[in-house]
C-alpha cells in the first residue's frame, strides 16, 4: 500500500528472478529431505525452506526446530522425575499409611443419604498414583522447567540473530515499523470514530470469556448431578465406578467444547480485528493474534485452572456442606489429593487436543477439501484434457488448498508451550508428549506446505514478532502458576510442615492422621446421614481438612495447623517466585544475545572495511601530496598539507557500518 | 586504542573545529543561565551543555533533569500522604487506645532488674508519631512509587531516544561494542590467567561485605550495651532519655561509618577492577561501576535493612529472652512499632549523607584543594607576572581541579534513588527531600563543571550505559522490599486482620488489647524481675506478641492469631508484588519507547528520501528512454525498455534509511 513497500516489493521480486531458476531443485530437495516422517531425526534444511517459502515461514520452522530440540532435555529430566516417583512409591510413608488397613480411618460419607461411611484404605490406588506426580522431585522439576523456558527464549533469540545475520534481515527493521503509509482515510480516524469498535471488542471478548466459563460451569454441574444420580442407583457396579465414569466423560466433554469453541473463537477474533480498522498490516496481524490468543488461551486452560485452584475448595465441611441447586453437594477432590485430578485433566486435554487437531484438522479436513475440489473441477480438467495439453502449473496449484497464514500453526504450538510450562509441576511427562507430537508436527507441517498447499507468497520478516512476547509472557506467568500448583494443589508443603513442626519423631509417620479432622456424626444435618450403613455404631468420622475437633471450645473452625500450613504455603510461593525470577535474570544475563561467532564475524568485516578505507585514504593522501609537491615546485612557501581534510569523510562510515 | 576509535576521534576532533569558534559564547551562556542557584526553576540548556562538555556529560545532566522533574509529582503525592497521616492522627483508634490511660495496660519490664513494669500510655508519643507514617495511605503511596519508578525509566528512555535523535548519536552504537581492538596480550589472557584476579575480587568483596556487617553489628552492640548501662544509672534523667540518646548517637555513628567506608570502597573497587584487566575501556568502566555500586549499596543500606527486617525479631519473649554476651538482652523496637524507627534511621542517613556529601565532599574539599594548589603555584605565577604577560589559559586551567569522571555523580544519585524507591513505604517525605537536594545538586554540579574543574575531554556516549540497568534493577528490587516493609514492618496487616476477622464490632476498638499477650510474672527467670517496683502487686504483665496466655495448655507458644496474621502478611506480599509487577508491565507497554514526534519526523524524512529517490529513478528512466529512442531510431526492432533494471538499486536504500 505504501510507496516504499511497493519499492521494497519491487526489489524483492527482482531479487527473486535470480532465485527462481533454482526452485525446481529446491522443491525436490525439500520434498525428499524434509517433508518425510523418516527424516524426523535430521536437522531441517532451514536455508532451503527460506529460499522456497520466504523468511516468515523459514523463521517458523526454525523456531519450531529450536523448540523441539530443547524439548529433548526437558523430556529426559521429566522422565527421570517421573521415574523417581515410580521408584519411591513403595517406600513413601504417606501412601503406605493410606493403604494400611490396620490404621482404620473411618471417613465421612461422600454424598448425602445414599453414601455410606468408608475406609480410607479403599482409596489406596489413587494415593499411590498421586505420589507419582506429587513428590519432592516435582518441585525441582518446576524450577527446572521455569529456567528451561528462559533458556529456550534466550536460545531462540540467539538463533534468530544468527538467522537474520546469515539471511541479511537486519536492514528491513525500519521498513516494517514506519513505512506502511496507509490511506489518508484510515489515518484520520479519531478515537471517537474508533470508540464503537473498541466497545464491541471489549464486550465481545467479555462475552466469549463468559461463554467459556459457562461451559466450564456446565461441565461442573454435569459432574455434580451425574455423580449424585449414579450414587443413588441401586446397582452396586454403577456405584463403584462413579468417580472414574464421571471424570472420564466430563473431561471428554471439556475437550469437545474446547475444540468447538476454538474454531469459533478464531473466526470471532478475525471479525473483531476487522472492526477495529488497524492502521497497518503488521498492526492488524498483531491485534488478531493477541485476541485469538487471549480467547483460545482462556478456552484451553479454564477447566484446568478450575481443577488446579478451585475444585474442592468450596465444598464446605461435614455438617455444613455447600449445595448448588439446593440439592447437590459441591464436588470434592479425590482422596489422593487434587493434583492427581489436575494431572488427569491436563494429560487428556493435552493429548486429545494434539491428536484430534493433528489428525482431523490438519490432515483430515484438508484432504476432504481437496477431494471436494477435485470432484468439482473434474469437468474443467476433462475439457482441458480434450485439448491434449498437459495441465498447467497454475491449474495444479489451484487444486491445492490456499495458504491461510502461520497463525494457526503458531497458536497450536504456543498453547502446547502452555501445557509444557504452566502446569508442568503436576505432569512431568508433558514435555515428552510435546516432543513426540512436535517431531511429527514438523514433518506434517512440512508435508502440508510442500505438497498440499498452494505455494504461499514469500513474505519477509525479521523475527517471529508478537509470538515472542506471548512466549515470554507465558514464561513469566508460568512461574507464579507453578508456585501456586506446588504450594496449594500438591501436598508438598503440608508434608514439610508436618515433618518439621508437628511430627514427634521428625519422620512422616502419622502424617495422614494429622491431615484428617474429626467430625461428630451427631452433628450431621437431618436427612444427610447415611440411610443404611454397614459400619455399625459410628460416632466420629474423619474428613480431610485442618479444623478444630468437635470437643474443642470452637469446634470446626480452622485450627492453628490450618493457618500454619497456609502461612508456609504462601511463604513458599514468595520464595519460589523470587528465586526463579532471580535465576531467570541470571540465566538471561549469562547467555549473550549475540552468538560469539557472529560478534567475531562482524569484527572481521568491520576491520576489513576499515582497512579498505585506510588504504583509500592513504592513496588519496599520496595523490594530494604528489599534487602539492608538483604545486609546491611551482609556488614554494605554501607547503601546508591539509591532513585533517580527509577526516570528515569517515563520518559516513559509521552509519554504513551499522 | 583501536584503529577505528582513532579514526572516530579524528572525525570528532575535526567536527570540533567548527564548534570551537562558538565556545566562548557557549561558556558565557552556561555560566550565566545554567550554573547559578537562582536559575533553579529553569529548564537546563542541555544542547549547550552537550556542545561544551560533550555527549556523556550532556546525558548526565539531561538524566538528572528528568529525574528531578519527575520527583515533583512524587513529592506532592508524598506530602499529601503525610498530610493524611497528620490529619487522621487524632481520629485513629489504635493510637487513641495506646494513649488512653484508663485502659491501663501494665507492660513487662524492658530490661532485667533495673527496669520496672510500665504503662503503655507512657508510649503515647511514639504511637502518635508512628501513625504519621504507618497508615493506609502509605500502602497506596508504595504502589504509586513503584509505578513512578517504572514511569521514570520509561520517560528517560523516551528522552534518551529524543536526544540521541537530535544529537545524531544513533550511528555510534556499533563503534562502542565491537570496535575496541585491544592489544593482543590482553586478548590472549585465558581464564587461567584471570583466575587469581577473580579470586582476589570475590574474596575482597566478601571481606568488604563482612566489614560492613561488622560495622552494623558494632553499632547494634553499642546500642544494647549503652542502653543497658544507662538504664542502670541512678540518675532518673539519664534513665528517661535512654531511648532518644541511644538512637540518635547510634544513627550518627552509622552515618559516619557509612561516609568513611564509602570513600574506602570507591578506592577498593578501582583497585579490584584494575586487577581484572578488562578488555575494553567500556568494559572497565562497567565493571568498576558494578563493583563500586555493590559495595556502596550494601554499605548505605545495611543498617536500614537491619532496622526494617531484623530488629526486634530475635528478642525472645518475657521469661525466655535472647541474650548477647550472656548479659545483654537483644534490642526490641519502640512500643509504637518498628516503622517509626525505620523512618528515623532512613531520614537521618538520607539527609545526613546528602548534606555532608554536598557540603564537605563536593564544595569543601575542592575549595581546599584549590587553595593548596594556589599556594603551591604562587612562586611560578609570580615569576610569570614579572614577565608582564597575562596568565595563559592553560595556566588558569591548571589551577582548576582535574575532572574525575561522572561515576561519583551518578553513584550519589543512584543511592538517593534507592532511598526514594526502596523504603519509600516508611518515609513518604523522601521524594521531597530528594527533590530539594537535586534542585541544588544540579546547579552545584553545573557550577563545579563550569568554574571549578578543568574542562573535561568531550566523550561521546549514546546512553547512560550500565546506570540504566542498575536503576531498572533497583526499581524491580524496590517492589519486593516495599511489599515486605508494608506487610512485616508496619502494622497495616495486623490491623486489617483484626478488623475483619477478630473484632467483635467490625471496628478497630480493642486492637491494642488484641496485639498484647499475657505473661505470668512468676515465670520470670530468677534475677530478672524488677528489683524495686512502684507498681505494687503485679501478677500478670503484657508484651507485644501473638502468643498463648499462661493459662493455656501450651502456654507461650505462638497462638492461632500469630499464624493467621503471618498468612495474611505473606498473602499481601504476593498480592502486592504481582499487582505492581503487572501494573508496571502495563505502564511500560502503554508508553511507547519512541516519542510520537520522532516517529513522525522519521516518517517525513523517509518519505523525503523516497521522493528524491523516485525523482532520480524517473530521471534515469527518462534518460534511458531518450537514449533508447535515439538508439531505436538507429536500430528499430530492439525497442525493449529494461524497466526492471532500475529496481535492484533500491536495495541500498533500506540500509541507508535505517
UniProtKB/TrEMBL annotation, chains A, B:
Segments crossing the lipid bilayer: 12-30, 60-87, 137-156, 198-224, 244-272, 293-310, 413-436, 570-591
Q: Which GO terms describe its molecular function?
A: intracellularly calcium-gated chloride channel activity
Keyword annotations from UniProtKB, A to Z: Membrane, Transmembrane, Transmembrane helix
> Record's InterPro entries?
Anoctamin, Anoctamin_TM
| Membrane topology term | Multi-pass membrane protein
Q: Which residues form the Anoctamin transmembrane domain?
A: 49-605
Q: Where in the cell is it found?
A: Membrane
Residues covered by region (Disordered): 632-658
Annotated Gene Ontology cellular components are: plasma membrane
Q: What is its main location?
A: membrane
Q: Which family is this sequence assigned to?
A: Belongs to the anoctamin family.
Identify this protein by name: Anoctamin
Q: Which organism is it from?
A: Labrus bergylta
Amino acid at each position: 500500500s505504501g510507496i516504499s513497500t511497493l519499492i521494497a516489493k519491487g526489489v524483492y521480486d527482482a531479487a527473486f528472478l535470480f532465485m527462481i531458476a533454482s526452485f525446481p531443485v529446491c522443491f525436490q530437495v525439500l520434498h525428499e529431505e524434509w517433508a518425510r516422517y523418516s527424516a524426523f531425526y535430521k536437522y531441517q534444511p532451514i536455508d532451503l525452506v527460506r529460499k522456497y517459502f520466504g523468511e516468515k515461514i523459514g523463521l517458523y520452522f526454525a523456531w519450531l526446530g529450536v523448540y523441539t530440540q530443547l524439548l529433548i532435555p526437558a523430556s529426559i529430566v521429566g522422565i527421570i522425575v517421573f521415574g523417581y516417583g515410580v521408584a519411591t512409591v513403595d517406600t513413601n510413608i504417606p501412601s503406605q499409611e493410606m493403604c494400611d488397613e490396620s490404621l482404620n480411618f473411618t471417613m465421612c460419607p461422600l454424598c448425602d443419604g445414599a453414601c455410606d461411611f468408608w475406609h480410607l484404605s479403599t482409596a489406596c490406588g489413587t494415593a499411590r498414583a498421586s505420589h507419582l506426580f506429587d513428590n519432592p522431585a516435582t518441585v525441582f522439576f518446576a524450577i527446572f522447567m521455569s529456567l528451561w523456558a528462559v533458556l529456550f527464549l534466550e536460545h531462540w533469540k540467539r538463533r534468530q540473530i544468527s538467522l537474520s545475520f546469515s539471511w541479511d534481515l537486519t536492514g528491513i527493521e525500519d521498513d516494517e515499523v514506519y513505512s506502511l503509509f496507509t490511506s489518508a482515510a484510515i489515518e484520520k480516524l479519531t478515537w471517537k470514530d474508533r470508540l464503537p469498535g473498541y466497545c464491541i471488542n471489549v464486550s465481545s471478548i467479555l462475552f466469549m470469556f463468559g461463554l467459556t466459563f459457562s461451559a466450564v460451569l456446565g461441565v461442573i454441574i454435569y459432574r455434580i448431578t451425574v455423580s449424585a444420580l449414579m450414587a443413588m442407583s441401586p446397582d452396586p457396579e454403577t456405584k463403584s465406578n462413579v468417580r472414574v465414569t464421571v471424570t472420564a466423560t466430563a473431561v471428554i466433554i471439556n475437550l469437545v467444547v474446547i475444540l468447538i469453541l476454538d474454531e469459533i473463537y478464531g473466526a470471532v477474533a478475525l471479525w473483531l480485528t476487522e472492526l477495529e480498522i488497524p492502521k497497518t498490516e503488521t498492526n492488524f496481524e498483531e491485534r488478531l493474534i493477541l485476541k485469538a490468543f487471549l480467547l483460545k488461551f482462556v478456552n484451553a486452560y479454564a477447566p484446568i485452572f478450575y481443577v488446579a485452584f478451585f475444585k474442592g475448595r468450596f465444598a464446605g465441611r461435614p455438617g455444613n456442606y455447600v449445595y448448588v441447586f439446593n440439592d447437590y453437594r459441591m464436588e470434592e477432590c479425590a482422596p489422593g489429593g487434587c493434583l492427581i485430578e489436575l494431572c488427569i485433566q491436563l494429560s487428556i486435554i493435552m493429548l486429545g487436543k494434539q491428536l484430534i487437531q493433528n489428525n482431523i484438522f490438519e490432515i483430515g479436513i484438508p484432504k476432504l477439501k481437496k477431494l471436494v475440489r477435485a470432484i468439482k473441477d473434474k469437468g474443467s480438467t476433462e475439457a482441458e484434457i480434450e485439448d491434449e495439453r498437459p495441465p498447467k502449473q497454475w491449474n495444479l496449484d489451484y487444486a491445492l488448498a490456499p495458504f491461510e497464514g502461520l497463525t494457526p500453526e503458531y497458536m497450536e504450538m504456543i498453547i502446547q508451550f502452555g501445557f509444557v510450562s504452566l502446569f508442568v509441576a503436576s505432569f512431568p511427562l508433558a514435555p515428552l508428549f510435546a516432543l513426540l507430537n512436535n517431531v511429527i508436527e514438523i514433518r506434517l507441517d512440512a508435508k502440508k506446505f510442500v505438497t498440499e498447499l498452494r505455494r504461499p507468497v514469500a513474505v519477509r520478516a525479521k523475527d517471529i514478532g508478537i509470538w515472542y512476547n506471548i512466549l515470554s509472557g507465558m514464561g513469566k506467568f508460568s512461574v507464579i502458576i507453578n508456585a501456586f500448583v506446588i504450594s496449594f494443589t500438591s501436598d508438598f508443603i503440608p508434608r514439610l510442615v508436618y515433618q518439621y513442626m508437628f511430627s514427634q519423631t521428625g519422620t512422616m509417620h502419622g502424617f495422614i492422621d494429622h491431615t484428617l479432622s474429626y467430625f461428630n456424626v451427631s452433628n450431621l444435618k437431618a436427612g444427610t446421614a447415611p440411610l443404611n450403613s454397614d459400619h455399625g455404631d459410628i460416632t466420629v468420622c474423619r474428613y480431610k481438612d485442618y479444623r478444630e475437633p468437635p470437643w474443642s471450645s470452637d469446634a470446626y473452625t480452622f485450627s492453628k495447623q490450618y493457618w500454619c500450613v497456609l502461612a508456609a504455603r504462601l511463604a513458599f510461593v514468595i520464595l519460589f517466585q523470587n528465586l526463579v525470577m532471580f535465576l531467570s535474570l541470571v540465566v538471561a544475563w549469562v547467555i549473550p544475545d549475540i552468538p560469539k561467532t557472529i560478534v567475531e564475524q562482524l569484527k572481521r568485516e568491520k576491520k576489513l572495511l576499515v582497512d579498505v578505507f585506510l588504504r583509500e585514504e592513504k592513496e588519496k593522501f599520496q595523490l594530494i601530496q604528489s599534487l602539492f609537491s608538483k604545486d609546491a615546485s611551482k609556488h614554494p612557501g605554501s607547503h601546508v598539507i591539509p591532513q585533517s581534510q580527509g577526516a570528515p569523510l569517515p563520518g559516513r562510515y559509521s552509519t554504513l557500518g551499522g
